[in-house]
Amino acid sequence: MSNVLEVRDLTVRYRTTRGDHTAVDGVNLEVRRGEILGIAGESGCGKTTLATTVLRLLKPPGYIASGDITFYPKEGESIDLLAPRGRRLRAVRWRHLSYLPQGSMNSLNPVANVKNQFVDVIKAHTPGRVGNLDERIAELLHRVGLEPEVARMYPHELSGGMKQRVIMAIAVALEPDLLIADEPTTALDVTVQRLVMQNLAELREKYGVTLAVITHDMGVHAQLVDRVAVMNDGKVVEVGDVKQIFAAPTHPYTQSLIASIPNLDVHQREKAGAHRAVEEQAS
Amino acid sequence: MKELALNGVTQVFPGRAGTKVLAVDNVSFNLVSEPAKIVSLVGASGSGKSTIARAVLALQKPTNGTVTYNGKDVFKLSRKENDTYRRDVQPVFQDPYSIFNPFYRVDRVFWKAIKKFNLTKSKSEGQEMIERSLEAVRLTPSAVLGRHPHQLSGGQRQRLMLARVHMLRPSFIIADEPVSMLDAQVRKHFLDILIDFHHTYGMTTLFITHDLSTVAYVGGEMKTIFHGRIVEEGPVEQVLVNPTHDYTKLLLASVPVPDPEQRWEDRVEIVDGMPRVVPVE
């Protein structure tokens, strides 16, 4: 299986008044074409910094201390993602590499209708002329289970889950090779969360989009992804097939992450001994 | 024994173009201090959970019905009764950031409470009280006191609110989505402290959440709320194991099972605005 993305020895630091803070520490990772890769870890472990670096959205005081990121489009030559600037960078983004940001419910423009937000993206990232987009927008909305009428609506008329799905449709508007989704289900209700996960799975199954899904929710990884990379303190501590990682996690951090998954067992506390757990955390 | 009761509470908000939105529809239930209980209120966003919390905390007067504390309408309490009620019913809110004034050090939330409820006149005694409460929520006093809210993590800020609760020893805690912004490990830690308070100090907790796994974790009783109405209630072990209402069933079916060997084989679809589980064709 060929790779879409290869990250080699990537180190990203933030300059602070008390010296540099290493957020991503010598990360090696590849994303294979056609897979859903999960990136797990708790808040502050460097997941989002890794994503923003790959997308070249890292802003000062953050900087890349070392490493390479190579991107392999479906056709044509490989691209050194750390090299392009300006127009060339814009050509890579969205057409090859797309992003579903964290808290994307706030990512829509409140004073433009949904259709115009599609048009903006398509115009900005397509080199040639764009033609009539109505049918294309309707089709993109259909992919995420929304009616064509949604195109005429404004963000405030949409529910949280609908906004999230509009953003998903915009993110895949230019048939990207790779979509990086940062916490796509966080802050949504369980039922809406399940719909969004269903839509993400369908983007891969029906439309062949490769996905990298960043989330701290191990339940989402278990239900959605093929492989998981577990991050802790800026390092990838374990990568592997999701079934294997859940069945036999080798790194102690992965074990603790899996052990702390909330579940629906109503007798879990008696089993674990709630008071003992409290004491342990105190020490 | 103290009692906090909702009697036929209905809340209507003005909607778009003169329409009315029925947020809470004739809800009645009561919470008692003895025996202390944890009661979870579960529902989707927009189901009316937070409106109920706001009514119980006397932050918003319901359109119809009353909220009573020891039999008295919370909107008609005398000044003295109101002080007792304010101390005895403590909130923990969802967003551990917005409840702090970013300009002040976090110590202020404790000193304000000490002054307002006249816990002590002595500065050193007050300091001791604060430190004892911080230790009760496993925070190191020297690590948090004197800091500003932005210097602390979400989990630490949320535990500060628990420390304030610990200091005031209320009979009732109204916790509105207190862990939805915390990740799994920090969440578990927070819930353990809350459960510990319930056992140690006998605090009755109204725990509002959309997350069934936290309900399973805290136990006690639960009520499912759907479109402003309580549609199912009972002990957590019973409702989560044998749900009778379709909406509770749907919520349960939507929780991702943390096992890649047990993936969903059906789908959720929205039919006439109501999500439901359908088999894959």
Task: Please describe what this structure looks like.
The complex is a heterodimer of chains A (283) and B (281). Chain A contains eleven helices and ten strands. Chain A has 283 residues and is an alpha/beta fold. The radius of gyration of chain A is 20 Å and the shape is globular. In chain A, α5 runs parallel beside α6 (190-207). With 281 residues, chain B is α/β, with parallel strands linked by helices. The mean pLDDT of chain B is 90. Chain B contains ten helices and twelve strands. In chain B, a hairpin with a 2-residue loop joins β9 and β10. Chain B has helices at 49-56, 79-88, 107-116, 123-136, 141-144, 154-168, 184-201, 212-218, 236-241, 246-254; strands spanning 3-14, 20-32, 38-42, 64-69, 72-73, 89-92, 172-176, 204-209, 221-226, 229-235, 266-271, 274-279. At the A-B interface, α6, α7, α8, α9 and α11 of A face α7, α8, α9, α10 and β11 of B.
Low-confidence stretches of chain A: none
Strand segment tally of chain A: 10
Strand content of chain A: 25-35%
Return Rg of chain A in Å: 20 Å
Measured by residues with Cβ under 8 Å of the partner chain's Cβ, the largest interface is: A-B, 47 and 49 residues
Count of distinct strands of chain B = 12
List descriptors.
heterodimer; A: 283 residues; alpha/beta; six-stranded mixed β-sheet; four-stranded antiparallel β-sheet; globular; B: 281 residues; 10 helices
SSE blueprint:
The complex is a heterodimer of chains A (283) and B (281).
Chain A: E1 3-16, E2 19-32, E3 36-40, H1 47-54, E4 62-71, E5 79-80, H2 86-92, E6 97-100, H3 114-125, H4 134-143, H5 160-171, E7 178-182, H6 190-207, E8 210-214, H7 218-224, E9 227-232, E10 235-241, H8 242-247, H9 252-259, H10 268-272, H11 274-282
Parallel strand pairs in A: 3-8, 3-9, 6-7, 7-8
Antiparallel strand pairs in A: 1-2, 1-4, 4-5, 9-10
Helix pairs in contact in A: 5-6
Chain B: E1 3-14, E2 20-32, E3 38-42, H1 49-56, E4 64-69, E5 72-73, H2 79-88, E6 89-92, H3 107-116, H4 123-136, H5 141-144, H6 154-168, E7 172-176, H7 184-201, E8 204-209, H8 212-218, E9 221-226, E10 229-235, H9 236-241, H10 246-254, E11 266-271, E12 274-279
Parallel strand pairs in B: 3-8, 3-9, 6-7, 7-8
Antiparallel strand pairs in B: 1-2, 1-4, 4-5, 9-10, 11-12
